[in-house]
Amino acid sequence: MMRGFSRFYTKSSLLIGVLIVAYLLPIWLFRYFPTQDGVSHVYNSQILTEYSNTAYQFRDYYEINWYPFPNWLSHFSLAVLMFIFPPLIAEKVFLSIYIIFFPLAIRYFLNAVQPGRDALVILSFMFIYNYLFLMGFYNFAVSVPLFLLALGYWWKHKAQMNRTRIILLNLLIVITYFAHLISYAFILFSIALLALLHFRRDFKRILITGCYLLPAALLLLVYLPTSDLLAGEPPEFGFGRVEELFANLLGMHVLVAYTDSPSWISAAVSVLLLFLAVATLWQSRRGTTAVHAGQKAFLCLTGVLLGLYFILPNALGPGGWVNDRLAILAILAVCAWFREFDRLRWKRVFTSVVTLLALINVVYIGVLFKNLNAELREFNAFVRRVEKNSVILPLHFDAKGSSERVGIFVNAANYYCLDNGCINLGNYEVQFDYFPIRFTSNFETPTQEKEWVQTVHWRAEEIDLCGYADNVDYLLLWGTPDEPTVAQAIEACYTLIASEGKLKLFKGAR
To answer: What pLDDT sits at residue 341?
Structure first.
């Protein structure tokens, strides 16, 4: 019994557990989780939870898109959690699950390829609070550990795939689909490529692999015909941005959210990854440790992912940040190629360095969260002034505050709509086919454009603010309008009821 107990409670396991607790603290120590899109997901999930609640008017304005598209996972999970917790606590619980799941999935993935590389698991903590996660891309954030879990599961059982394992693998891939389309597409692609590399002389095994992946792959055929992904101009592939993308990759641009890139922490992570690559090549050349079967295969997979990172555009259809998403998948996949140090002394030094860096990183994140929470409290000063079931038109002219990359105020008006049934006219999710909430067909929008919410967010001068005043209960203004005509229209057609610093709350004519 004690032997089995010690398998799970090794020094490295305890260290990983301590770091998980430390990385949970920034979520729970502060009221707001400062992201760009996160609070939008929370608000729209609450619409799902309260859609049948007659105390709110959600049914008058919104309809639910029940189609099985990607991006359902966070909305469904948050909506379920909101039956138990208030919205902001439900968000914290959901994010905590992600924090716990991330290093555990990476540990499983690495052990599936080659056991005993917990120092790399500790290094992976640096990727938990990545740029895309802090942008509020919750579905993609959760899809990353799902991608690694599914990849590790297939690699571990690839030679002995029975019916139960095939069902479990397909289930993991289906869950990944409902998290995010890119991770779903690349888990299918990665398994197919690894099967070709590993079973290259066994065509029957390759064919069998393709056949048992088919059920999960069919979801792509279900989604694409109805999606906006294939609408519009075809994407342009090319090497025109190679220099920029290489600089971003070398500086670990994807780890920097609230400051300019690169930061010294992202630079330190880049140095450590380059050191691991050199150390792995050196040990391979010396032949001090045997080459593991998975190392070359995962190096090839990483090379292909990086190749796509350099040639793909930043947006495919309505979806953006493609290069950053691929960068994260490629960087974590290459960890399967890195070798463990053959000398205990080097292993201890490296583990100590990455542990110290991980702790410094979480303290740094905590300090940033504290400062950004002060700004969000200023933004939310008039939340209690807004009446239940009101219609709010938000106009922001300071998207970021002290944040350099993440626009923490872009969707912050959603805080004014939690727990009171308010309708946010800046609800960006309604204009995309991969989110569950959209306005009813008879809803009168501020402009006639398809993506009119983008006009609300970024081009307020194109809105007839006086003509639309009859549809608005409150106009929430943050910052100073860029165009004098906007300020003049607000002053002429709306009544100022509260003002504090950058924040102004106006009453509409509705």
So the answer is: 77
Low-confidence ranges of the chain (pLDDT < 50): 1-6, 8
Beta bridge partners of 505: 476, 498
CA 508 – CA 493 distance, rounded (Å) = 7
- AA letter at 178: F
Among 263, 271, 227, 222, CA closest to 123: 271
Q: Tell whether omega for the bond before 262 is within 30 degrees of 0, i.e. cis.
A: yes
Whether 113 contacts 153, CB under 8 Å: no
What is the per-residue pLDDT for 23?
Answer: 98
Residue 74 in contact with residue 94, Cβ under 8 Å? yes
Indicate the pairing of strand 474-478 with strand 391-396: parallel
Tell me the C-alpha distance between 96 and 478, whole Å: 30
Element (H, E) at 478: strand 474-478
pTM of the entire predicted model:
0.94
For residue 395, give the nearest of 315, 485, 320, 319 by alpha carbon. Answer: 485
The residues, any chain, with a CB within 8 Å of residue 64's CB and separated by 6 or more, are 48, 51, 436, 437
- DSSP three-state, residue 127: helix
For the chain, how far is it from start to end, CA to CA, in angstroms?
70
Closest CA to 472 of 428, 430, 422: 422
Q: Is 64 helix (H, G, I), strand (E, B) or coil?
A: strand
Query: What is the predicted pLDDT for the residue at 117?
Result: 84
Non-local (6+) Cβ contacts of 337 within 8 A are 280, 295, 296, 298, 299, 302
208-261 residue pLDDT tens:
999 999 999 999 888 887 777 666 566 677 788 999 999 999 999 999 999 987
What three-state secondary structure class fits 149? helix
Question: What pLDDT does residue 292 have?
Answer: 67
Q: How far apart are CA 177 and CA 328, in angstroms?
A: 17
Measure the CA–CA gap between 456 and 426, rounded to whole angstroms. Answer: 6
State residue 1's pLDDT score. Answer: 41
